[in-house]
Predict the 3D structure of the following.
Amino acid sequence: MNLFPEKLTEDNGSIKVDGGITLRDYFATAAMQAILTGNGGSAPNRWELVADAYKVADAMLDVRKE
């Protein structure tokens, strides 16, 4: 599932979504914002920030499946 598609094209009579971001990326972005807000707007290690954000995103996707 892609959010914010860049364009829609027709491919043999069907509509195809091009570009955009995945729901996982969208959730990770929201998680990063929350993590940064909780840390006063900074992160001690950007790689840990990204890893933590995707862990939160994955947990959110898991809960959606329930």
Remarks:
- The mean pLDDT is 85.
- The two ends are 18 Å apart (CA to CA).
- The first helix runs from residue 23 to 38.
- The beta strands are 2-3, 7-11, 14-18, 21-22.
